[in-house]
Amino acid sequence: MKRNIIIFILGAAAVVALDQITKAAITSRFLLHESSTIIDGFFNLVYVMNPGAAFGFLAGASATFRYVFFTGITTVAILLIIYYLAKNKHGSIITVVSLTLIFSGAVGNLIDRIRFGAVVDFLDFYIGACHWPAFNVADSAITVGAILMIWEMIGARKRNPPVEES
Fold first, then answer.
1. Most buried residue, 31, 53, 141, 161, by most Cβ within 10 Å?
2. Tally of domains within the chain
């Protein structure tokens, strides 16, 4: 239990700090919509503000609705993660790390929504004219955390297959 709490607190603090430091670096060095090529034909740093969620989800909704919806959903997710970790005293290290990444990514993007009403995105990967939507460290943490959680769930199911009742 104590090990899981330490991993959670230190991991979350590190990811949130890295997320906010990288976003501050971009916002202080770039103008909005400015771009700098890092690897020609593959990777740029850009400065964009995403008022929606992944892939611009709800970007066209009113600012008030987006603020209430995204801060509400994120707050609920954060509280559920804390509740789960507090109740599940013997969670695997992979579960703890996955929840830490999801939590810290949610916190990093929530900070932006509260400060700016949108999320700072700056990592732009592309091949030719095909661009992946710009994202940030918090988005990466959420994605890696979700992948780890799915991996752990599949592994747990293989280790403990459901027992069929006869």
1. 141
2. 1
Residue 166 lies in a domain: no
pLDDT digits (tens, 9 = 90+) for 65-113: 878 888 898 999 999 999 998 888 777 899 999 999 999 999 999 999 9
Helix (H) or strand (E) holding 121: strand 119-127
Active-site residue, 40 included:
no
Q: Which of 19, 112, 124, 139 is catalytic?
A: 139
> Does some domain include residue 59?
yes
> Which of these ranges, 23-27, 52-56, 107-111, 161-165, has the smallest mean pLDDT?
52-56
Q: How confident is the model at residue 1 (pLDDT cuts 50, 70, 90)?
A: low
Range of the domain at 138: 2-159
- Cβ atoms 49, 133 nearer than 8 A: no
Place of tokens 């990777």: 43
Model confidence, pTM:
0.86
CB atoms within 10 A of CB 102: 22
Catalytic residue among 19, 112, 121, 124: 121
To the query of whether residue 124 is one of the catalytic residues in this protein, the response is no
